[in-house]
Amino acid sequence: MSSTAKQRMLARAARDITPGMTVNLGIGLPTQVMAHVGADCPVCLHSENGIAGVGGLAAPGHEDRNLIDAGGGYITCAPGGSFFDSAVSFALVRGGRLDLTLLGAFEVAANGDLANWIIPGKSAAGVGGAIELAQKARRVGVLTSHTDKHGNPKILERCTLPLTAVGCVNRIYTDMAVCDVQPDGLHLVELAEGVTLAEVRAATGAPLIVPAGPIPTF
Amino acid sequence: MPLLDKSTDLAEAIGRIGDGARIMIGGFGVPGTPFTLIAELVRHGPKNLTIIKNDANEPGMGVDWLLGAGMVSRLITSHVGLNGNAVRMMNAGEIEVEFVAQGILAERIRTAGAGLKGFVSDIGIGTLLAEGKQRVEMDGATYLIEPALEADFALVHAARADTFGNLAYAATARNFNPLMAMAANCTIAEAEVIVGTGGIDPDMVHTPAPFVDHLVALPEKLMEVYGVVHR
Asked: Of A50, A60, A53, which is closest to residue A34 (Cα–Cα)?
């Protein structure tokens, strides 16, 4: 994924973060969406290690040793932010107070299944908070490169890897497209600038339902 | 009515932990990890421990000291991704690792601390993590029974304490500490600052002192490992 395509994907995902939302950004790519949310947009960022109201990344030299996000990055607390224990943090998640979470993926399926925590025999370092975020956030977005490093599709008809959660994904943001999971299948919503429909079809492992008329670009 | 002074010596506090103990350790990454208590535990050297902690810290830190000393037989955790040593030992069969979804781990600990036996949840239904769990039908759907998670000891880190053992945490160093402090038979707290009773506003107490058994004062100059990590 080129740097331009990645920045475009991050900026596109950030546009779905709207005023008043409480949002959790997963470790890795999703955390980088934070930089694309407007500084004046009133959004409450939650991190599962126990903060609602992340201000942003701490400036080098001004880190607080007690203030990190769930990925271990040093952050600041916005005015109005709060700290709490891990049980309260996940009560917030499971209790339906999270409007949106953005997560990474190993595989995501046209039926909304998500696999992002274990590759048997290769990577099994634990599930962290992913299951509860995926299963209980009111809306789940996945950020991922459209294909893996070998060019194989990451969007499939059905996941082959063990699932994080069943049927949880609403929207998929990639370097090539934005797709929505609907009851009748996977809908192509937008194309990345310079990417053709044929290219997206070829890189996707599931049938795409394409809107009539011109496809918006991002 | 005066309240008991629970201050104790580090070696005496940790010296009561024996072979085969189940030990909860607070912290999420570096913040809230009781490094001084862990370092003393390594010096004391009990074996065959079950460690319950959100993560395995990073190489050269905290839980990694226990792993390196061969003291751990079982780890109950939500992820160990930042510690390659833990991953290697797990894959080599040198330690047994039980992965628990992070919020379920927290709630299982909280439940034990609240004197309950478990709770009912739909988290992980349809995934590997639901396998082998007891199921129950409620309101026409299937749920999982999540058993409470108890321990012999909890090691926790507080920013401030009073001599009676009321604790207050700083920022995201709170994490699992107040839950674990409630869930163990014996809770040992280390604190950066210890004041006399009355020195903490009762409204500002995060862990009430009846949950705390022993209190260890940290030196004014903390070990480097408590500081900001430059990766």
From this structure: A53
